[in-house]
Predict the structure.
Amino acid sequence: MKAIAVSLALCLVVGAAYAQSPAKTPRAPSCTAEATTKTLAGAAKTSFMKKCETDAVTACDTAAADKKLSGAAKTSFTKKCVTDSIGS
């Protein structure tokens, strides 16, 4: 019974934290979308995507450091951030 009460309290705290989070800011277009807009193909596209991914990793690592994340939280945040930046 105590475990259920603790779980419920944790859910309420996490839910309140998400409810207070600021609205998402508009993001820059993904690397894939930008490469398509620039009509890149072949070696030019490969080079552009590689540089864009490197830039995304650097930016995401900096953002994770600013949020003082470490361990699994940093890895998860960075992976999602880079995936969002590169696009599909």
About this structure: The two ends are 45 Å apart (CA to CA). Residues 33 and 87 are 7 Å apart (CA to CA). Residues 42-66 form the longest helix (25 residues).
